[in-house]
Design goal:
By secondary structure, this protein is an alpha/beta fold. Helix content is about 35%, strand content about 15%. The longest helix has 13 residues, at about 140-155.
């Protein structure tokens, strides 16, 4: 797939911890109890020094913190890790995606100074004071607004990402106006892919719950103009191939991360090609998470110990996991070993992720 010297972008999931309880996040079960398969792992500064010696940092163009499960602002060493990367590469682009609902003003000012003009924060804020918490459960609006204002006032560059649901679509223009007032460089609406499903019946609602298991918000798709275009294109795919699984079996794959020279590091310190492959590891609805196909590739590479980047990224590349994943794309179908998640996320005819931004 690629070699270590080809890596130009690091996608770093620093933690599995988060103060929020977003109902469509794999970290918890519909906003309630935590995913039983995760242990709230977190990378420290010492871990990152082991994974990323200066010579690797110097070859990078970008390092951003996001991931599948946690929020970077909750991790203990987030600021220090960004400072470490900046110290060894004055030109690297630094960024993170966050719900913004934690840390005091001084922390945000320090982050703005570390990033300078070569970095940005993407604030994932899906509404205003009366609606943001309906999806971003447990996120305090006052904390969010303080974070946004503190970071930008200190010279930080920022983008506001706004996931559109039925309950917040009427606030798009109001939120965009507020973003300009605060000083955001851009405001990005996202036609959420969270209602895209491989099931025959369309998914129109998603019931959120709290830690007690009590129903909170019934999340609903927005009106048609704000829906992800992939929802319509999915019907065309099914008509053409007979089913989504039949499409996944035969679709050619154009790997996004291979093109970008991007590598994903999980909060356990595991090196994977992308957040999507890693995201199949711990689906909470499986009694045994290892039923997922991605585990066959991990197990053949020495299991988690074999892809632990804290032993050195060179050793991870020597396991051959990245080449094995790429080689699977030429298999006859997914049952024969073609990695299905690659077809789902990088198949050339259907891309719910990219369609979010249309």
């Amino acid at each position: 797939m690629y070699r270590l010297k080809d890596i130009k972008t690091i996608h770093l999931e620093i933690t599995q911890k988060c103060q929020a309880a977003c109902p469509m996040c794999d970290r918890n079960m519909n906003g309630g109890d935590d995913n039983p398969h995760i242990d709230l792992s977190e990378l420290t500064l010492e871990d990152c020094i082991k994974i990323f010696p200066p010579y690797i940092i110097k070859q990078l163009k970008t390092m951003f913190m996001c991931g599948n499960l946690g929020d970077p602002i909750i991790a203990r060493d987030t600021l220090e890790i960004f400072e470490y990367f900046r110290h060894h590469n004055s030109d690297i682009w630094l960024s993170m995606n966050t719900n913004g609902g934690a840390r005091d003003s001084e922390w945000w000012r320090k982050l703005a100074k570390t990033f300078g003009q070569k970095g940005a924060v993407i604030f994932s804020v899906d509404g205003l004071s009366d609606t943001n918490h309906k999806y971003r459960q447990n996120v305090d609006w006052n904390a969010v607004e303080n974070s946004m204002r503190s970071f930008i006032l200190a010279g930080g560059r920022a983008r506001w990402d706004f996931l559109i649901f039925e309950h917040n679509e009427h606030q798009i223009e109001q939120a965009k106006k507020l973003s300009k007032e605060i000083g955001f460089e851009s405001f990005q609406t996202k036609k959420t892919a969270r209602f895209v499903t491989s099931k025959t019946d369309p998914k129109n609602t998603h019931q959120a719950v709290n830690k007690k298991g009590e129903a909170t918000t019934a999340l609903k798709k927005p009106t048609k103009q704000y829906q992800n275009p992939a929802l319509v294109k999915q019907n065309q795919i099914i008509e053409k191939y007979g089913s989504m699984d039949s499409y996944y079996d035969v679709v050619p794959i154009k790997c996004k991360v291979k093109e970008e020279g991007s590598l994903f590091i999980t909060a356990e310190g595991l090196a994977m090609p992308c957040c999507w492959t890693a995201g199949r590891m711990y689906k909470w609805w499986h009694k045994n998470p290892r039923v997922e196909q991605i585990w066959r590739f991990i197990e053949k590479s020495g299991d988690k110990a074999g892809i632990d980047a804290r032993q050195g990224l060179e050793k991870v590349f020597e396991t051959g996991i990245f080449d094995a994943i790429e080689s699977s794309w030429t298999k006859n179908d997914c049952s024969a070993g073609k990695l299905k998640v690659c077809s789902m996320k990088c198949g050339i005819e259907w891309d719910p992720f990219r369609e979010q931004f249309e």
